[in-house]
Specification:
68% helix
Length: 157
């Protein structure tokens, strides 16, 4: 699994978080914990905390946004001096298609993660630290998705 696929897997997990549930970041991937009476003990044993989970979420989302920005800034869109799309060679066109597919997956992953982050904000609505870190992230996701959508619609023309 490459880095982008791993990040998208974690974003998918975030999108599936039901209200009131906790996540675990003790392993390689973010997972949704099963509710149990021993949950507090297991969280303590594995050094899990709300702060650690929020930091991990922010890192995963920001890494995905960074990759999206790199893809968008790369050779994805070639324009001439009149700001018109240029014809691409066959190899360039294949790379362009691959990048477009990646951007579509990133866009879908970020939209889903946004839903999950909103759910976490509702779950921890009384914790100002969680809101202070996650609410700006929602704005970052919206901004990135807007740029991706604009680029994708521009490429269809």
């Amino acid at each position: 699994m490459n880095t982008l696929d791993r990040l998208l897997f974690d974003l998918q997990t975030l999108s599936d978080i039901p209200r009131g549930r906790r996540i675990s970041t003790a392993k390689e991937f973010i997972i949704i914990e099963d509710a149990s009476l021993m949950q507090g003990l297991w969280r303590r044993v594995s050094a899990e905390s709300r702060d650690k989970a929020v930091v991990t979420i922010c890192r995963e989302v920001r890494s995905t946004i960074f990759i999206a920005q790199l893809i968008m800034e790369s050779y994805l869109v070639h324009r001439d001096e009149d700001n018109q799309f240029m014809d691409l060679s066959t190899a360039g066109e294949n790379n362009r298609r691959t990048r477009l597919k990646e951007l579509k997956k990133i866009n879908a992953g970020l939209i889903g993660a946004n839903r999950g982050i909103n759910t976490l904000c509702e779950t921890y609505d009384s914790d100002a630290d969680v809101s202070g870190r996650l609410v700006p992230l929602i704005g970052n996701i919206a901004e990135c998705c807007k740029h991706i959508s604009e680029l994708l619609s521009e490429c269809k023309r």
